[in-house]
Write a structure and sequence with these properties.
It is a single chain. The protein is mainly α. It has three domains: 124 residues, HUPs (Rossmann fold), CATH 3.40.50.620; 116 residues, Serine Threonine Protein Phosphatase 5, Tetratricopeptide repeat; 175 residues, DNA Cyclobutane Dipyrimidine Photolyase, subunit A, domain 3, CATH 1.10.579.10. It starts with 6 loop residues before the first strand and ends in a 6-residue tail after the last helix. Bound molecules: flavin-adenine dinucleotide.
């Protein structure tokens, strides 16, 4: 007896089996051809960054292993999605394709074009929701427009939209009669060439659906209770570390939302604070959907006139963690070591680049995109514009972080700095965030020679602050576009 025609399930930013509606619907209907396409450009932001390619490699291996438990395979192909889908459909006899929708500009453009072209060939395409808690086109203000301010957005999300409960992974995934050919993962060269600068990533990360589920369980059991207090302390390990898993869809926001349901009384304000952060991700996607220019253009167009200095040497010192401001340097080195930086330190490092060094936020956004394992077209662009003051509901430009005071407030004993800037390890805590102010004898006793073992500050913060405010005043005289 011949089997039913298979359905292609095109995996994209949803590298998971549970709460995957595209997969569940296909598996319930017949044999499945699971497919991942390496597209020439992965998002409106350009190709995946180097750190996230490392993650993708391991995540695809994990997905392949999970599918193998069902006797299934993961077909890997590179090329234009329409060409690949057409070929795989022809080789496998599939007449239907399923996928979960994306909300970044190039994801949307690809969805629309592919769906239309497949229909013209007699191949039916069906798309499903799952990347977000709510679809951005459905959550609108009473006037029918997009939200630009987080608080009313959050209120609407929290009160009006109970996300659909997550669904289980399929009980079985039937195989097609013939498997189309697949490319070897190693040939995609997603891992960095030797010496592998990403080798240290595995000190803290386990890519894949199982790694994501373990992170969520650990977070709920051990960190959620104190999340409100500890989430701002970079050395406390007080956050969920779910962002890279979310970025490639190894876990869905609905799974996170529902896992924290009903925990209110036990975990106090931790739950609400945590959910609010997950809602910031939703808000970022909401902005990206309604303002697709978000990764490239200032939402406040007055910033188009801003006079950036864009000094190459300063950018290089910032990216290498050699600014002479320990909290900034620790953050930039954490980024290099683990492909991750704590949220508080991201804000400090971004503010330093934009306001102390007067370097265009788009340079920082691009560096983060290349080096973060959680690089996300919506979160990254929205966060950089938030810090710059050029975005929707952004921090005002004139609120300029002092990297020394921020360090002293959020890393009071300097434990975070010492972890990532070992050359300051022996310095007394009271000088750890301002080694340039320490007496010479104390520096010598700690084995530090400023300008030799650790840099002097590359900028005077007080001068830089005045300079930034002056540059800002120049553009605020221009009228603000609605
Ligand atoms: P938790 O505190 O456990 O939060 C849970 C989840 O909520 C996160 O995984 C994330 O999905 C979401 N979230 C938390 N904070 C934010 C936020 N401020 N904005 C949007 N979503 C948030 N996050 C990314 O996922 N990708 C990026 O590319 C990215 N770039 C950033 C760039 C800058 C300049 C700044 C200031 C922030 C950026 N963030 C980005 C947001 C935030 O720093 C990370 O989401 C967070 O540090 C991830 O750690 P976690 O999973 O332990 O967070």
């Amino acid at each position: 007896m011949t089997k039913a025609a298979p359905i292609i399930v095109w995996f994209r930013k949803d590298l998971r089996l549970a709460d995957n509606r595209a997969l569940a619907a296909a598996a319930a209907d017949g044999p499945v051809v699971p497919l991942y396409i390496r597209e020439p450009t992965e998002s409106g932001n350009g190709p995946l960054g180097a750190a996230q390619q490392w993650w993708l490699h391991h995540s695809l291996e994990a997905l392949r292993a999970r599918l193998a438990q069902f006797g299934s395979q993961l077909i890997l192909r590179s090329g234009d999605p329409l060409d690949v889908l057409t070929d795989v459909a022809r080789k496998s006899g599939a007449q239907r394709v399923h996928w979960n929708r994306r909300y970044d500009p190039s994801g949307i453009a690809t969805d629309t074009a592919v769906k239309k072209a497949l229909a013209a060939q007699g191949i039916a395409a069906e798309s499903f929701a799952g990347q977000l808690l709510h679809e951005p086109m459905r959550l609108l203000t009473t006037a029918g427009g997009p939200y630009r301010v987080f608080t009313p957005f959050w209120r609407a999300l929290d009160s009006k939209f109970e996300p659909a409960p997550p669904i289980d992974e399929p009980q079985q995934i039937a195989s097609p009669e013939t498997w189309p050919s697949s490319e070897p993962l190693d040939q995609w060269s997603l891992l960095p060439a030797k010496p592998n600068w990403a080798a240290t990533f595995s000190e803290i990360w386990t890519p894949g659906e199982k790694g994501a589920a373990a992170r969520l369980d650990e977070f709920i059991d051990e960190k959620l209770e104190d999340y409100k207090v500890r989430r701002d302390l970079p050395d406390a390990d007080g956050t969920s570390l779910l962002s890279p898993h979310l970025a490639l869809g190894e876990i869905s926001p609905a799974q996170i939302w529902h896992a924290t349901q009903g925990l209110q009384t036990e975990a106090g304000e931790g739950v609400a604070t945590f959910r609010k952060e997950v809602a910031w991700r939703e808000f970022s996607y909401h902005l990206l959907f309604h303002y697709p220019e978000l990764p490239r253009c200032n939402l406040d167009r007055r910033f188009d006139l801003f006079r950036w200095l864009d000094h190459e040497g300063d950018f290089s010192r910032w990216s290498k963690g050699l600014t002479g401001f320990p909290i900034v340097d620790a953050g930039m080195r954490q980024l290099w070591r683990h492909g991750y930086m704590h949220n508080r330190v991201r804000m400090i490092a971004a503010s330093f680049l934009i306001k102390d060094l007067l370097i265009d936020w788009r340079r920082g956004e691009a560096w983060f995109r290349d080096t973060l394992v959680d690089a996300d077209p919506a979160n990254n662009a929205a966060s950089w514009q938030w810090v710059a003051g050029s975005g929707a509901d952004a921090a005002p430009f004139f609120r300029i972080f002092n990297p020394v005071l921020q360090g002293e407030k959020f890393d009071p004993d300097g434990a975070y700095v010492k972890r990532f800037v070992p050359e300051l390890e022996r310095l007394e805590p009271r000088y750890i965030h301002r080694p340039f102010a320490a007496p010479a004898a104390l520096l010598a006793g700690a084995g530090i020679e400023l300008g030799a073992t650790y840099p002097r500050p590359i900028v005077d913060h007080a001068m830089a602050r005045d300079r930034a405010l002056a540059a800002f005043r120049e553009i605020t005289s221009a009228p603000r576009e609605p």
